[in-house]
Amino acid sequence: MLHSAAGGSSAATCLGSFWQTSVVSQMKNIPHWPWIALVGLLSLPSSCGGAAGAATGTTGQAAPAPVEAKAPPLHPSQAELLQIAFDAASAFPIDPHGKNRSRAQEVVVVACFELGQPDLALGYGTRIADWRRGIAYADYAFGMARRGDAQRAREYIALAQGVIAEEKAVPESQAWRSDLIALKCARAFARLGDDAAATTAAAGIDAASAHAVDGGWADTAADRVERITEQGVAAELAAIDEAFPAMSIGQQSVALATLARVHAKFFSDATTRRFCEERVAERWVKLMPGLRLEALATMVQTCFDRKEIEAGRKLLAVMREIVAAHTWRPEDKAPWTGRLVELTFAGGETERAKADADAALAAWHRDREQVVNIWRAETLRPLALAFHALGDTTRCDELLGLVLEESLENPNSRPRCDDLVDTCVDLARRAIVPSAAVLDRIREIQRGLKAPW
After folding, report:
1. Distance (Å, rounded) from C-alpha 321 to C-alpha 302?
2. What is the C-alpha radius of gyration for the chain, rounded to an integer number of angstroms?
C-alpha cells in the first residue's frame, strides 16, 4: 500500500520592476508592453548547479517582500527517492552522454527547489558538469534572496554570471543558454530590491532567444505578477490584449502563464477574473492546446481552492473539449488525461473521476502495442498518480509496478534511466511513499543501469 508523507511546499516567486525598463526598442512590434518585451527576449528550461564563490561588491536596497519561511524537512522516503534519481542520472557516462546526464540531473535539482529544499538542490547542482550549473546558481540565489540572505544571494549571482562568461567564451555555444542564466540572475537581483542591477543583468539578452515555448521560462517571467498592484492590473491586461496577436508562440506562452498568475492574485476582482478566463477559454482558441490547457488547469485549481466550484467546473469542461478535439500521440495525451481525472476529483465529482480513470486505463491497455516501448512507462505513469489522487493507493501501487517493468522494455539504459528519474521525482514531489516491493524494484533498477546506453 502507498500513503502520503508530509511534503515541503513549493515556493512562490516574484520579479521586480526591471521588467518595465530596458530593451523595449528591441521589440518594436510590442510597443506598449515593455515588461513583456524584456521577457520576450528570454526562453527555455530551468536548471541547477552549485559551488561556493566570492560575492560581488554590489549593494542594493532591502528586499521589498517579506522573508519566506523555510519549508519543513523532507520525509525520509522523499529524500531517498531524490537520491536514487540523482544517482541514476549521474550514471550516464559523460562521453558521449553529457547532455542526457545534465538534463536528467536537472530534473532532480528542479524538484528540490520546488519542494523548498534549496540547499539540497545546490548540493546536487554542484555535480552538474555543463552550463545548467549556472542556472542552478541563479535559482539558489533567488531562493536565498527570498529568505532574506542577501550576502549568499549575491555570492551565487556572481557564480552564475561566471558561468555566463564561460559559456560565451565557447564558440559553438548557443545564446539562449546564457540568456536563461541572465534571466535568473535578473530575477534574483529584483527580489533583493536592486532593480538597477537587475536591469544590467538582463541588458545583454538577445532578442532571438525570445520565441521558444518552455514552461520554466514562462513561469520565471510570470513571477513579475507578484509586484503588479490593484491600481495597475487593468493597464497590464489591456497591454496583453493589444500585444497578443503580434506575439510569437513563446511570448504567448509567457502571456498565458501571466494571466494564470493574475487570475489567482486578483481572484476577488470579478472583472479581472473574467478577463483572464475569457481570453484563455473563449477567445484565443487557435493557440497550441497544451498552452491553453496549462493556463486553464491553473485557473481551475484556483477556482476550486477558493471554493468557486461551479466556476471551476465550467473551465474544466473547456479543458475536456480541448483534449477531446485534438489528435494526440498517446504519450502526449496521457498527462492531460491524468490531470483531468485529478481536477475532476478536486471539483467534487468523485464518481466521474473514477470512471474516467478506469476508462483511461482500459484505453492504455487497448492501445499499448501502438506506443513505442520507450514511451510506455511515461504514458502510464500519469494514470498511476491519478489513482493515488483518487485515494486508490492499491491500484496506484500496482500501476507503479507496471510502470517500472514497462521502463525495462527497451534494452538500452538511457530510456530506462530517464524513466526511473521521472518516476522517483514524481513520487517525491507528491510525497507518495511507495510500497516496500516497489521501492525495492526502484533500487534494483538503479543498480542495474549500465552499458549499453
Report:
1. 20
2. 22
The alpha carbon of residue 112 and the mean position of all alpha carbons in its chain are separated, in whole angstroms, by 12
At 243, the amino acid letter reads A
Q: How far apart are CA 252 and CA 287, in angstroms?
A: 9
Decide: 442 and 377 in contact? Cβ < 8 Å: no
Q: For residue 434, which of 116, 5, 111, 109 has the smallest C-alpha distance?
A: 5
Q: What's the whole-number mean pLDDT along residues 109-115?
A: 97
CB 313 within 8 A of CB 345: no
Task: From 177, 185, 200, 205, select the one nearest 145 (Cα to Cα).
Answer: 185
Stretch 318-332: mean pLDDT, rounded?
Answer: 94
User: From CA 229, how far away is CA 217, in angstroms rounded?
Assistant: 23
| DSSP label at residue 280 | I
C-alpha 383, offset from chain centre: 20
What is the pLDDT at residue 66? 54
The angle that helices 413-429 and 436-447 make with each other, rounded to 10 degrees, is: 140
Rounded to whole angstroms, the Cα distance separating 331 from 325 reads 16
Cell of 94: 559523460
- How far apart are alpha carbons 22 and 18 in whole angstroms? 7
Average pLDDT over residues 28-37: 36
Distance CA(244)–CA(248), nearest Å, equals: 9
| pTM to 2 decimal places | 0.84
CB contact at 8 A, 34 and 24:
yes
CA 426 to chain centre: 12
**3 has which bridge partners?**
433
Q: Please say whether the beta carbons of 48 and 180 come within 8 A.
A: no
First to last CA, the chain: 33
